[in-house]
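Q: Structure tokens for this one, please.
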Amino acid sequence: MCNQKLNSAQESRERHLVCTPAIRTIALLLLISIPISVFYRAHVTRQKSVTALSRILDFTAPPGMVPVPGGMFMMGSDSTISEPDEKPVRKVFVRDFYIDQYEVTNSDYHRFDPTHRFSEYQKDIPVTGILRDEAQDYCLSLGKRLPTGSEWEKAARGVDGRLYPWGNEFNAEKANVRSGTLSRTELKAVGSFPMGQSPYGCYDMSGNAWEWVSDEVHAKNFLGISTGLIRGILRGGGYNYSAFQARTSYQGFEDPDLTCNDVGFRCVKEFAER
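A: Here is the predicted structure, written as tokens:
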């Protein structure tokens, strides 16, 4: 019995002696792996921070433009007074982009087309009477393009579904728009209504000049049958239109080959993350 106990104790000690180097090895590896793991996590965190910082730095807007961060927003309107083409309210995703802070002015357009004529006091007034293709050509000449309808609406209303760039209550002091007995008779210099800025700092997205977007629709007759005609889309309302047309979800329709003396535009630019 004692011999058996002695043998058992000896075997246990031998197993302990055999296991000890293995345990020491495992412990050493664990001690080494902990700082490596910590270093790796710190490295990854630093890389993420650098990437985020680079993205912020890259998102610095070109001159005359403001950044609009991508993401989902609520587009359209379900109001009882809304037009059928505004319905329904839906979630729409847009990518990051830049948009002109102001409507393109006469002086801006003159640099593109030297034959464009205007008086001195009109140099800071939105250029109007421009066809959609002419507006697109101007934008392309600067490495930009016309906004899509969803980009324009995101820039105008942000993510909270507001009716106007500044909020849900119309205020005639914030836009060049006809209201009640107040009649607006002419275009104003861009930026004349600073209290009417959009959430991203865009001016005159309600009133002043209508603005072309790149979207188009197929016109239909009263039976809902396509007529084969293409209609371009205008946004933002005009100086002699009402607060109804100045809503951020409202869409006007025009033949792309026609224009008017209250139709202008602004441009957007792709955001290219490096």
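A few notes: Residues 76 and 114 are 39 Å apart (CA to CA). The beta strands are 65-68, 71-75, 90-94, 97-100, 210-220, 226-235, 251-254, 263-264, 268-270.
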